[in-house]
Design a protein that fits this description.
This protein is of the alpha+beta class. About 40% of the residues lie in helices and about 25% in strands. The protein has six helices and five strands. A five-stranded mixed sheet has the order 1-5-4-3-2. The chain is elongated, with a radius of gyration of 29 Å. The termini are far apart.
Length: about 170
């Protein structure tokens, strides 16, 4: 056979092999399914626990009634700084962290802008934990203790607040 015939045969073989659609192969379809499964698993991991989603929406609204609505009737809000101060004798916050207290109302309407939630996880049926960052200034970590799907205790650690050492007596 001449070189010309070999060239024509080679071209015919190449064209025939390119004629099939590689996206219809079983290997391609298996990889596509695996990609879709991984995307679904990632979406599940990125989804916020429902109470954290409600917390975010309520505090972004700045509406006191909406914020109160995610708490139990006896629910409270406190930062780690509040707890530290109370532990060491500052009593100005006693009775103010509940849903009818001044400190609760102040913090419920304090911020403006978006509340970014970072790495939220549901911990059993009674708690959720997350990192958070307000677009206007503060960030930290939070834990929500739940009863019946509502917040009993919201405890936030505000990283911009430095807890001072206890003054020596």
């Amino acid at each position: 056979m001449t070189a010309r015939v070999w060239t024509i045969l080679l071209l015919a073989v190449l064209l025939a092999s390119c004629a099939s659609d590689p996206t219809s192969s079983s290997e391609y379809l298996d990889l596509q399914q695996e990609r879709d499964d991984l995307a679904a698993r990632i979406a599940e991991l990125e989804a916020l626990p429902p109470i954290v989603e409600q917390f975010k929406a309520a505090y972004e609204s700045g509406d006191l009634d909406e914020v109160r609505g995610i708490y139990t009737e006896d629910g409270i809000w406190a930062t780690t700084a509040n707890v530290y101060e109370l532990y060491y004798g500052q009593e100005s916050h006693i009775g103010e962290w509940g849903t009818d207290g001044y400190e609760f109302a102040r913090t419920a309407t304090l911020h403006a802008g978006e509340l970014e939630i970072l790495g939220a996880i549901q911990v059993g049926d009674n708690a959720a934990a997350f990192g958070w960052r307000w677009s206007d200034f503060a960030s930290g970590t939070g834990t929500l203790h739940l009863r019946g799907g509502k917040i009993v205790v919201a405890s936030l650690s505000v990283t911009e607040f430095e807890i001072p050492p206890l003054a020596s007596s």
